[in-house]
Backbone:
């Protein structure tokens, strides 16, 4: 009986659940959603609260799914037994992988359900956009060759969580939609507003870059561990020295994209105040370049994302409120 108790899986408590889904990092998933909602109001003067609420549920559900599902897949695919039993939360806390998978499946079902409802309420083209995002979310760590184990994680992470989330947040709020898909008998027609799509990409580019930078920092910190687990990420192919030389240029490119968006009048000029965050961002970059440690300095990449894009969202909200109080101010 004592052996049975010793071998029993632990119950998933709230603190363990929050660690499993990396709750603090979920703010990184919320910011693109928030920015997209704000820009739908600023750029198009439209806001659909029902669609926004449905998308919020779907976006947060898929964010929870991805993190929890990745933890389970890393547990199953680990070649390094020390990592499996002492660092991966599933093995370290002796949680049931099957129960965690079932819970993550529930979150995935909620996200898919929200997506289908939004397709019905907006346009059929969202089925293609959302379907691609779901595909990346599942096969990021699943399958014989997961996307996270090849040098594509940074690009996919930034594009899907950055541009994808901003684009969909705008998509579900504005009419007409930036992209439309129509079916007539056996024929279909996909059309879009190219200037709007390109503008949204530029607006989302800072979060695309900074989100990818977070993944880049994570992979740099885990380089030795990833090699033991046969996970060959971008830093593996670049080499650590070259990866560290590239690293500082990524946040700089994000700030340049913000300046360019303001210069093209896609954003109001007060958003330029974001540049005052650069000294702190630079200090975080220097801290990471000095020591690449998951526990000590990885959070500097996350902080840079939150400070930069969070400030941009707050400034845009302030401009919206000021413009409501004094129309035409910006």
Residues:
């Amino acid at each position: 009986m004592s052996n049975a108790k010793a071998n029993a899986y632990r119950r998933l408590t709230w603190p363990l659940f929050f660690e499993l889904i990396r709750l603090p990092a979920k703010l990184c998933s919320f910011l693109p959603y928030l920015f997209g909602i704000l820009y739908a109001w600023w750029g198009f003067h439209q806001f659909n609260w029902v669609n926004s609420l449905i998308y919020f549920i779907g976006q947060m559900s898929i964010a929870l799914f991805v993190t929890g599902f990745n933890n389970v897949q890393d547990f199953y695919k680990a070649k390094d037994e020390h990592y499996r039993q002492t660092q991966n939360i599933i093995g370290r806390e002796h949680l049931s992988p099957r129960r965690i998978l079932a819970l993550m499946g529930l979150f995935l079902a909620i996200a898919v359900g929200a997506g289908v409802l939004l397709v019905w309420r907006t346009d059929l083209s969202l089925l293609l956009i959302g379907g691609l995002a779901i595909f990346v979310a599942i096969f990021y760590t699943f399958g014989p060759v997961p996307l996270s184990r090849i040098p594509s994680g940074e690009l996919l992470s930034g594009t899907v969580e950055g541009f994808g989330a901003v684009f969909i947040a705008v998509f579900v709020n504005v009419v007409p939609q930036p992209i439309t898909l129509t079916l007539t008998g056996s024929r279909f027609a996909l059309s879009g507003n190219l200037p709007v799509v390109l503008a949204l990409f530029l607006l989302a580019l800072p979060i695309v870059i900074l989100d990818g930078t977070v993944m880049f920092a994570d992979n740099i910190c885990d380089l030795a561990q990833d090699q033991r687990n046969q996970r060959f990420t971008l830093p593996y192919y670049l080499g650590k020295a070259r990866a560290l030389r590239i690293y500082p240029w990524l946040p700089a490119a994000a700030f340049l994209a913000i300046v360019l968006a303001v210069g093209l009048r896609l954003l109001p000029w007060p958003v330029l105040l974001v540049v005052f965050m650069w000294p702190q961002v630079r200090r975080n970059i220097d801290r990471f370049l000095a020591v690449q440690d998951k526990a000590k300095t990885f959070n500097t990449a996350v902080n840079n994302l939150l400070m930069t894009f969070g400030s941009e969202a707050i400034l845009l909200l302030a401009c919206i409120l000021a413009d409501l109080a004094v129309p035409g101010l910006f």
User: Anything to note?
Assistant: The longest strand covers residues 179-184. The longest helix spans residues 49-77. Confidence is low (pLDDT under 50) at residues 1-6. Residues 55 and 114 are 7 Å apart (CA to CA).
